[in-house]
Amino acid sequence: MTGKVPSWQDLKQKLHAKALEWRRPQLRTEASSVESGRGLPEGEQASKGHSSAAHPFWVIVHKEIGDHIRSWRVVILLSLMILTCIGSLYAALDEVRSIARSEADASFLFLKLFTEHNGTLPNFITFVSFLGPLLGIGLGFDAVNSERSKGTLGRMISQPIYRDDLLLAKFTAGFALIAILFMSLGLTMVGTGLLALGIPPTPEEFWRIVIFMLIGIVYVGFWLNLSILFSTRLRQAATSAISSIAVWIFFSVFFNMIVQLVGRALAPAGSARIDDILSYARSMQLLMRLSPSQLFDEATMTMLVPSIRSLGLLTPEQQIGAIPSPLPLGQSLLLVWPQVTGLIAATMVCFGIAYALFMRQEIRSK
Question: What is the pTM for the complete model shown?
Fold first, then answer.
């Protein structure tokens, strides 16, 4: 049986088709290996793995911290805090030197750097209590509504990130900046005091200063969360800033006046029993502790002044037999734990309300 002999062109086409069939699986394998990073060199594989490991939450946190550092508003607030720290340190050093020379109540000298003043400038605790809320408000009053007004909020949410990660990243960035600032200021005070006095702090003094700085971070974090709450609820950044400042002024100035007016109206008569007087005093103290600044003042003064043994009223029977000596660190912590818990609870409540409002809002509608 004879057949047609294939020509050279037919053989060439068949060989070319067979070669393409052999190469197709190899090309698919190379493409898949390149996409997965297996076909890349080791340096490129490491960079690709590092970039894929970066969580969107931390990307937003780094972006927010960079925006805060480059913002003139935050730079002015940080400069103001640093200047007040230098002024209070200068005012306290003269008083501490005089105490050290006179050897009168020369214990806990490093703690007196934060509590003493020479009459010209307030001490460091007063500056933190007054200016700390401004720092928290300045970091958070336009956290959400500025993104909405610029039209970038919908773009950020359209990315592969969770909505709650955005709000949590805003708070984390501001809180991290506050923590860095307070730790830097506290260590600067300790270092300057060490150079000026020539006496190192005791371990108890050091830990009391660290706890004071942690309480200050929580206190400013409350005002940061409050401003984020107003920024989530209100659409204009100016309105949220005015609302946050109004709350700060109310608790700093008018709240004490209102409590005093209520106290005068509810004051017991001069012939009242001792139990009625103690109940009235505890009620007024409870009303005063509704203010975050009051909780901060009580907690910080107890930590930095170890001679404070109680934050409430003591009857003469309770004072009998008490030895006038400073409290240990553990006892001072137990004494201020309710105040610290109240600040943490208020911070969590503000963040919870802001979280609920933000999760229920319509982002893409104008």
Answer: 0.79
